[in-house]
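thoughts on my protein:
***
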Amino acid sequence: MANKTVDIRKETVKAFNFILKKMEDEQVPVGDVQLCIITNFGCITCKLASFESDDQTNADKIAKLSLKFCDKLLEENATTANVINDCDTLILKDVILMPFANPEKHITYSSMVLFSNQIVGVSLVQPLAKDF
C-alpha cells in the first residue's frame, strides 16, 4: 500500500479556516477578522471556497474545468510521466491581494486558485479596505 501524501501548508490553512468558521457558527466573538495567507509576493485575505457551490462565476467554472483537466492528465500518465511542480491547490474567493512590492495597491479577485507551494504562512487579520 502506497503512503498518502499530506500537504501540511494546505491543511494548516484549512484548519485556520475551519476553526474561524466554527467559532462564527457557535457565535463565539472573534471580532472582525479574516483569513490571511502570506506568500512570497504578498498577503492575501480571502475565504476558502469550493467548486461544489451553486454560485459560481465564469472564472470559477473555467478554474474548475482546468483543475479537472490536470487531474485527468496526471491520472492517465501516472506511471509514465515525470511530473514536476506537483502540489495541492486552494480555491479562494473574495480575494484581496496586497503585493509586497506595492502595499498601497490592493488587487481584488472574485476567485483564485493558489498553489500550496506558494504559502509561507497563515494568520487571522483585520479585513483590508477594498476601496484603495
